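Deviations from the work plan: none for this task. Representative record:
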Amino acid sequence: MVGLVVASHGRLADELVATARQIVGDLPRVATLSVEPHSSPDEIRAQLKSAVKSVDDGEGVLVFADLIGGSPCTQSLSLCQQVRIEVLTGVNLPMLLKANSLRGQVSLVDLAHQLAQYGQKHITCASDALRARAPAA
Amino acid sequence: MIVLSRIDNRLIHGQVIEAWLPHLRVRRLVVADDATAHDLMAQAAMGLAVPESVEVVHVAIDALDARALSADAVPTLILFRDVSGAVRARQHGLPDGRLTVGNVHAGPGRHAVSRSVFLTADEAAQLDALGASGMDVVIQAVPSEAPLKVPRAA
C-alpha cells in the first residue's frame, strides 16, 4: 500500500489528518510533519526522510505538501532522487480522503496524477453551482 | 537596484515568495549561495513557485557582482543562507543598505533573538560589525512583522 506523508507549515498537517480520521475512521500508513519557525532545512529533510521511511512498505510514498515552493515542498523534492516518492502541493481534505480510498488500486505515479486533478476539481464556488441549479426565485 | 539583502537559511521559500516579492515589487531574485550555485535540482525546486515576472539568478558568493546589481533599476532582492555569507558578500562589495535577518535556525550555542532567528555569539558580533560598517541590519521574518534591532553582542 502506498504510504502517505502530509507536510505543512505549523500544525495544518496534524489537524488535516485528524480531521480526515474523524470522517473516515482509520487512516493507516500516514505520517505528518510540521515545519516550525526554528526548523533548519537539514532538520526538515531528516524528519521527512524518517516520516517517509515510517510509512513505506515498498510501494512508495505520496508526500502532500501545503504550498508549492515552500520548505515542506522543496525539501521533499530534494529527496526525490533518494527515495521513491511523488510530491503533491496544495494539499486539501478531499484529496487526502481520496488518496486513502484509491491507494491499493493504482500505482504511486498514477495516484499522484489523479489526486492532483481531483484536488483541483474539488475547489469550487459552490454557491454559484447552487444558483445554476436552483429555480429562479 | 538592490532593494533588500536577506539572511534566510531556507533561501527561496514561502515567506520570500508570498510576502517579500510582492511587498517590494521585486523583479530580480539573487540567491548568493555556494551550496546551491551549481546544484540544478535544488535550483529547480526553489524556483517552482517564483512568478514568471521575477528573474532568478543563482551565484556563488564570490561571484556576486553587487555593483552590476546596483547599476540598473530592476528591484533586486539578494538572499544569503547564513550570516557568514552576508559578511563575505560585504567584503566583496555589497553596498550599504538594509540587511534583514529572516530565518537562522536553532541549534547548540545559539540564542533566540526572535521566533525564527537564533544566533551564535560570533554571528551577533558579525551583525554588529556589519551595522557599524554602515548597513542597516534588522531582524524581520516577514514585512508585516515589526523590524527588531539586533541585540548588542555580549
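Chain A is about 50% helix and 15% strand.
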